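pls design
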């Protein structure tokens, strides 16, 4: 029994696959990020991930690391889950990184952060819209 699909049948399947892929992609691209409020400690991710460094005793190092370009995160108080913290504005050449300006005053302090939760490839980040001492 011959089960080969003709050229027109194959073309139909290719077009159908492209349409389905496009619909799935557009659906994923239009999902609105969830707004979250999370309380925890602002940490420099380099020292925290390498050594577990955090707290008031690590504040001066955390500030130096953040100003040096290391990523800044939030260690959630309840769960010890770590979030990458992002400023709403993208850094531009020749200007201070907006994340540093926004977050360095809170390094090694307990804060409450409100913002949009982004997740990609297993990494969770919060685009900070509001931050204050907890």
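designed seq:
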């Amino acid at each position: 029994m011959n089960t080969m699909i003709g050229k027109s049948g194959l073309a139909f399947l290719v077009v159908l696959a492209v349409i389905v892929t496009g619909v799935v992609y557009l659906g994923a691209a239009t999902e609105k990020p969830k707004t979250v409020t999370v309380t925890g400690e602002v940490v420099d991710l380099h020292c925290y991930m390498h050594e577990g460094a955090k707290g008031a005793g690590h504040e001066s190092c955390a500030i130096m690391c953040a100003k040096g370009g290391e990523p800044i995160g939030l260690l959630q108080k309840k769960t010890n889950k770590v979030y990458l913290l992002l400023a709403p504005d993208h850094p531009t050449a020749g200007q201070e990184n907006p994340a540093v300006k926004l977050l360095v005053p809170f390094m090694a302090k307990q804060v409450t952060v409100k913002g949009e939760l982004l997740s990609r490839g297993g990494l969770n980040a919060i685009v900070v819209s509001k931050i204050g001492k907890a």
